[in-house]
Write a structure and sequence with these properties.
The complex is a heterodimer of chains A (220) and B (436).
Chain A: E1 2-12, E2 15-24, E3 29-33, H1 40-48, E4 55-60, E5 63-64, H2 70-80, E6 81-84, H3 96-105, H4 112-125, H5 141-152, E7 159-163, H6 171-188, E8 191-196, H7 199-202, E9 207-210, E10 215-217
Parallel strand pairs in A: 3-8, 3-9, 6-7, 7-8
Antiparallel strand pairs in A: 1-2, 1-4, 2-10, 4-5
Helix pairs in contact in A: 3-4, 3-5, 4-5, 5-6
Chain B: H1 3-13, H2 15-50, E1 55-58, H3 63-71, E2 81-82, H4 83-91, E3 96-102, E4 106-108, E5 111-116, E6 125-126, E7 133-134, E8 139-142, E9 150-153, H5 155-161, E10 168-169, E11 172-173, H6 181-184, E12 191-197, E13 207-211, H7 212-219, H8 222-226, H9 232-237, E14 256-257, E15 259-264, H10 270-280, E16 284-286, H11 288-332, H12 334-342, H13 347-388, H14 399-424, H15 428-433
Parallel strand pairs in B: 5-13, 9-12
Antiparallel strand pairs in B: 1-15, 1-16, 2-14, 3-15, 4-5, 4-11, 6-7, 8-12, 9-13, 10-12
Helix pairs in contact in B: 1-13, 2-11, 2-13, 2-14, 3-11, 11-14, 13-14
The chains are: A alpha/beta (220), B alpha+beta (436).
Chain lengths: 220, 436
Amino acid sequence: MVEVENCIRELGPGVRFHCEHFSAAAGDHVALWGPSGCGKSTLLNLVSGLLRPDSGKIVVHGTPLHELSEGKLDQFRGEHLGFVFQTFNLLSPFTALQNVMLGMRFSDTIPHSECKPRATALLERVGLGHRLHSKPKTMSVGEQQRVAIARALANKQKLILADEPTGSLDPKNAASVMNLLLELCDEEQLTMLMVTHDRVLAERLPTVFDCSGLVKEVAR
Amino acid sequence: MSLWYIAWAYLWNRKITTSLTILSVALAVALISSVLSLREEVRRRFEEESQAFDLVVGPKGSPLQLVLSSVYFMDSATGWTPLEDYEKIKADTDFVKAAYPIALGDTYQGFRLVGTTRDFFDFTWLHPVTNEPTQPFVLQGGEYFDAPMEAVIGSVVARRQNLKVGDTFVSIHGSFDLGDMAEYSHEAHPYTVTGILEPSDSPFDRAIYVDLHSVWDTHSHEEDHADTEHHEDEHAEDEPAANPLDTGEIRAADEKISAVLVQLHSIGHRWQYEEWVNTNTNSMAAIPVQVVQKFFNQFLEPMKAVLLAVGYLVVVISALSILIGLYLSIIQRKRDLAIMRALGASAFEIVGAIIIEAFWVTALGIAGGWVLGQMVTYGLGQYMAREYGMVITPFGITMDEIRAFATVGIVGIVAGILPAWQAYDRDVAHDLADRN
């Protein structure tokens, strides 16, 4: 599902990201763990195509991302990748329903007529059937994360990329959101890569990839 | 969910900023729209009215002043022209369909007294727009004057001065603001209103029509006033002249008139007859429509250019406000844009959404500005109708306006390009990582 080979990216003067090898099979749930600044988010961004490697190979779903044009990368992201960020996940002018539908708007995976029913069903699935028309600012952070999870599944994506998804939540909400995420990934047989600096949280996932040392200072 | 909706949602999300930007565009457009509408409407009405008479004949001097004073009753009369020139023109029935002498000089409460002959009320002309015979002097009450010191008043005069048939009024020498009115008034020669005209939506509504002899009688005192000697007591003792209308005789001691309004059998003879008058009489002829067009081209076009320049300057300032507004909003919602990119939006879709935002602001500004401009035109039109009897019709759109709006639209959308480029060129991974 995900293959990263000898991938290098210069992050700044004398600072380099270098991942010799990383892989995750379909259906794997992998925690990208490490201290702040170690390169775990950089790895996630490279896998999502939001960052391009200076050298090396990144293959997702059999597609070599490093070879795709900017436009093809945008299309690939919309069709195959679902994102859950730590916070500020939702677009403030839109309702919960519209935020989920927005995920479908930028790809042609879901037929237009099915967008609204599917978005509604997903929100009901994450327990927000009563908040369809609520704007983000009227929702709790936990509710917003649930909307983001629904949006990450909108296009029937098979790879979920979560960047500190519980980082802004209180312990109760964090546990609830994490349970929901794992539950849905199991149900839908999704692959998940989750960035976290929390070792306990990381160990809830079957595989932990230690990102320590991916970012190094190099002689100029 | 279309890009149009997404752009609209972001504008709606910052209503106050968006409203202020739209307002600034609207003000610029209103200025441009009202300048163009007013200029077009005023020009149209002036040209329409100017075609009532083929020629105006008056004393040598400024053709513009002659036309403005005798056709629109707007400026001071240019002086006097011999009555014999009128008689010569009237007698030339091969070319001349009708000729009407007018004598100007006195006013009542700012409304001009027009001394003329009874047959002036029979004047009919073919309106250039409707192409139908138009008769501006139809009575709504009373009757036409039948003797000196009788007056027929235009509808605006009747309404504004609350004059009715049978009322009397006293005119003054010259225009309304000459100073001490008592010094110049003809208290010994009051006029009696015998008729009130129907509204004709033309300058005719703002005039008072009296017999030519009435003007001559009162003007015989004018020179006395010029000598600053006041002989009002003597005037008071003057006996009115015998009614010359009974005999069809219009000659009087002064034998001078301000102008002759001429209708020809054919408009094709205008230039030829103008030449003839200029060569064979002591007066000067002017073709009103030609004078008006020249006036617009020489005087009003530069004024229009200055006002339009101001309007377009405001457009540029508004475009800058669109640019700044969008630019700041891009910085404020860089994370939103990054999330959209993460969701699969292409950089071109983001650019499209930003340019559509600029389009919405500009389009709403243009629409609002047009409405505002028409309201200004309507307000000024009401003023023009009240002051000059010239009714102009707002709520139209001219090719000039369409061109101006297209220019504003292009400028507005161009103003969106820089912020759109800013959004296009962002580092998505960096913006997603930025928690601020």
